[in-house]
Amino acid sequence: MGTNAIPLIHTSMGGNANPMDPSHNVLPGSNFESETTMAGYAKLLPLFNRAAMVSALVPMGRITGDVSLNGLDYKKTTRGYGDPMLQFGMNVIGPKPIMNIPDMLRYKPGFSADIIGTLAIPVGNYDNTSPINIGQNRWYGRIGTPIVWQFGNWVPGERTTLEFLPAVWLFGDNDDFVGKTMETEPMYQLEAHLTRDFMERSWGSLDVTSYTGGKATIDDVEGKALNNLGVGGTLGYQVNENMQLTASYSSTVNDNDSEDLKMDSFRVTLTYGWHSLVEGMRRLKSAE
Amino acid sequence: MKINRLILPVFLMVQVVSAKPPSLEPKVKRPNIVIILADDMGYSDMGMFGSEIKTPNMDALATAGTRFTNYYTHASCSPSRAMLLSGVDPHHNGLGNMDEWTAPNQIGKDGYEGHLNDKVATIPELLKETGYHTYMVGKWHLGKSPEKIPAARGFERDFSLLDGMGSYWDMTNMTAKVPNSLFTEDGKYLTKLPKNYYATETYTDKLIKFIDEGKSDGKPFFAYVAHQAPHDPYHLPKDWRDRHVGKYDTGWDHQRVERLKKQKQLGIAPESATLAERMWFVPEYSLLAPAAKAVIGRKMELYAGLVENLDFHIGRLVEHLKKIGEYENTIFIVFGDNGAEGNDLGAMIAGNPGTRDFLFFAAKWSNNHPNAWGEPGSYVGYGPGWAQVSMTPFSQYKGWLGEGGIRNALIVSGPVNKRARGGINNGLMSIADIMPTLLEVSGATYPKEHNGHKLPPLIGKSWTQVLAGEAESPRSKQDYLAWELFGNRALIQGEWKLRWEIKPFGKSDWELFNLASDPAELNDLASTQSKKVQELVSLWDKYVRDYKVILPSRSPFEGLFDVLPPRFPVTIGYPPLSSKEQYVPPKNLMTTPKK
Predict the structure, then answer these.
(1) Residue B215's domain spans which residues?
(2) For residue A88, what are the domain limits?
(3) DSSP label at residue B429
């Protein structure tokens, strides 16, 4: 039982921080370009009569970087696998988990709040002679509380939600960052999404993300804490009962200073999901 | 203190100036009259008639008054309303057929005008003449042109939906040719609806305003509160939609059993009462898949919410009358206009893809995700299975002449009712009785002529003796009630009912039932009681002659025999196949295959 999903997330990013490093440690004057894809598996299932989710994602792809650090220039393209990420989430406030077809028919998020925990395992490709890496050579993860408010009817074509994701990222030390030790303070993330259905199968959202904190220190040389805002939008299309496609763009906006994070990203996500109930509903529809 | 000193003398002066001399006051103020008509509400939908639906305000009226279990309306909307307001048989008052279904051989004939004709007088016309204020809110469905609207038929104030159905939220109507509902307010056609219009709430607000604005002259009022609820489409505010989620997954079979059980506890049904057969084309609920149960159950959840919302607004009206001191002097008459609606009106109107009305429905009535039901643009009705629940314990539903089509729950409370509070009466009552009853109560008389026309005779009997506790029924055993609609026919005399209905609901032949022993109409006695059939058929023939009944050459039900599955008796537990379970052999005899 439970819902199964395979997400494929392709991201094209550019900016002055390693896109694969969630701390977005700004390296002034640097220029990174990345083409990465994350593939994985997610399972949604009831736990203690609450909706829960476990997932695993593996990033892969290539990063091209042009970085000046400590008087040395690095220009390199690195490719391979990044640090796999494990994620666990569980609803704490909101509707009971979907256990059967009637539950599915009656589902409305109303107000719901979850807790999520993410952990990256530092086994991705890493080159200690370069600051341009897909793997991060340190443990890191986040704890967050996704919140969803439903406005109006939960009817395809009419759904509106306001969603927040406050989270804190915690980072272990990278004790071999081009031969040095990099420590990073906790980083605070707040995502906000206003989503609205356009039609029965299509929807869009306005996305705002803020990052604060996350100051990196490399061998006692302190960097600058982040205080950035990213703004973007997403278009989504439910291809069929099993498949959803989204495309989004986001860019930092308050990034005039050379030490500010400058980053933008295009992202296309294809999620294929399946559940015996969905299959059952399809059989029922075809039998009508 | 300073203000009190200034105000008190002024206040006393106003009292002195405005008070009428005692000699001009009537010795006993005549009672106000409120008729609350719930559109398509079923016999068992009120709590005090066996429902699980929460109707505390209607129940309170029942507790304060009397419940009548043997009350008959007509089988459909307009004929019932025309009988109510005129006290005259529909074949005389213009509604010998529903306007929408007038048969070719009835067109242009007297009694088949399709609106309340000008050859009858109405309750408000006669009560107004005797000094009553006359108010109407809600659904009219008795004519649309200026000489046919409520203001032209005796109502001095009105806020009315002239059509038979439509959106509860706006002016959207049902067909491509009639895309907009028509409303009148005080005799003028509305170009738009008030802000924040919701039918049941707005009707109640308007009536309260009419009452308040009219009370200064001390005249009693007659209010006809013809609610659109709970007619489909089930449009109801969000707050009322999710009060019964999952409750009706147990299904219509279970719910009918539960309602009958409660009816017996309440004394509405005798201990010997049995349920009518589930309609043969309605599936046994336990055989439905969980998804189907949830979706079909959702329809009943909404219906229950709609009835509860209706009850809430009835409660607002009652509270207001209490607040202004008029409740104790108000007669309430509460009932549904016909059986609960088991027909799929949406399919009847727009069931054929490629048609004009199908396209209209697609544009205006297709907001039909189950989560959207209740919203503007959604169209949902609950179908025959739930309609039979609403009509527990009877058979059939609206449009038909089985008990489920014409028998309704009736509550009468107020100053004329001297019977023991909360009691139950089983006398044979008719919707046509309301006119003579109210004329008697108000001191009005039924004139011989009205607007230059000789008036047809009233067919009803006054309830005043019954309400005074001096009689158990307004009818003798010889008095009879008769119906004809869509070609179906019925006649009730005493405990006997003669019925002729189009196949497959009926036999296209006369059937005979003894309602005292078989209110569920399970046993057709026509073959064993041929003398009684003959006797009642001769009464029926007299009725046809007296009222110039023209049996229709076409009927909305004429093709049903070709649409519905062949009719077989519904026997609970048959076939056993459907309830067979997996056989589990004894463990010690189970093994795995040998190699």
Answers:
(1) 28-474
(2) 3-287
(3) E
Judge whether B524 lies within some domain. Answer: no
DSSP readout, B447-458?
-SEETTEEPPPP
Chain A CA closest to residue B371:
A155
DSSP of chain A: --EEEEEEEEEEEEESB-TT-TT--B-TT-EEEEEEEEEEEEEEEEETTEEEEEEEEEEEEEEEEEEEETTEEEEEEEEEE---EEEEEEEEESSPP--SHHHHHH---SEEEEEEEEEE-S-S---TT-S--SS-SS-EEEEE--EEEEES---TTT-EEEEEEEEEEEE--EEEETTEEEEE--EEEEEEEEEEESSSSEEEEEEEEEEEE--EEETTEE---EEEEEEEEEEEEE-SSSEEEEEEEEEESS--STTS--EEEEEEEEEEEE-HHHHHHHHHHHH-
Are A155 and B293 in contact (CB < 8 Å)?
no
Across the interface, of B245, B249, B371, the residue whose CB is closest to A153 is: B371
Whole-number pLDDT of residue B39: 98
Question: Does residue B267 form part of some domain?
Answer: yes
Flag residues of chain A having pLDDT under 50.
none
Across the interface, whether the CB atoms of B290 and A158 are under 8 A apart is answered no
Residue to test with chain B: of A96, A100, A101, most B Cβ within 10 A: A101
The ipTM of this complex is 0.74
How far separated are the first and last CA of chain B, in Å rounded? 109
Catalytic residue numbers of B read: 77, 141
The number of folded domains in chain B is 1
What is the pTM for the complete model shown? 0.87
* Cβ contacts of B296 within 8 Å, gap of 6 or more: B288, B383, B385, B386
Q: Is B405 left (phi over 0), alpha (psi -120 to 50) or beta?
A: alpha
> Which tens digit of pLDDT belongs to each residue from A36-90?
999 999 999 889 989 999 999 999 999 998 888 777 788 889 999 999 999 999 9
Burial class (CB in 10 A: 0-12, 13-18, 19+), B480: buried
Tell me, what amino acid is at B97?
A: N
Query: What's the 3-state SS for B296-342?
Result: HHHHHHHHHHHHHHHHHHHHHHHHHHHHCCCHHHEEEEEEECCCCCC
Alpha helices in B44-173 (DSSP H): 56-64, 77-86, 90-93, 123-129
Assigned domain for B64 exists: yes
Query: Residue B104: is its pLDDT beyond 90?
Result: yes
- pLDDT digit string (tens) for B404-446? 999 999 999 999 999 999 999 999 999 999 999 999 999 999 9
Of A101, A108, A157, the CB nearest to B290: A101
The Cβ of residue A208 has, within 10 Å, a number of other Cβ atoms equal to 16
> pLDDT averaged over chain A?
91
Cα distance from B361 to chain A (closest Cα, Å)? 18
Strands annotated E in B88-172: 133-139, 157-161
In a domain, B583, yes or no: no
Q: What is the CATH number of the domain that holds B221?
A: 3.40.720.10
d(CA A14, CA A17): 8
Nearest to A108 among B294, B298, B371 (CB): B371
In CATH, what number is assigned to the domain containing residue A56? Answer: 2.40.128.130
Give the model's pLDDT for residue B579. 84
Between CA B244 and CA B386 the distance in angstroms is: 15
The two structure tokens encoding residue A48: 């203690």
Contact flag A155-B367 (C-beta cutoff 8 Å): yes
Distance between CA A111 and CA B195 in Å, rounded? 29
Total structural domains within chain A: 1
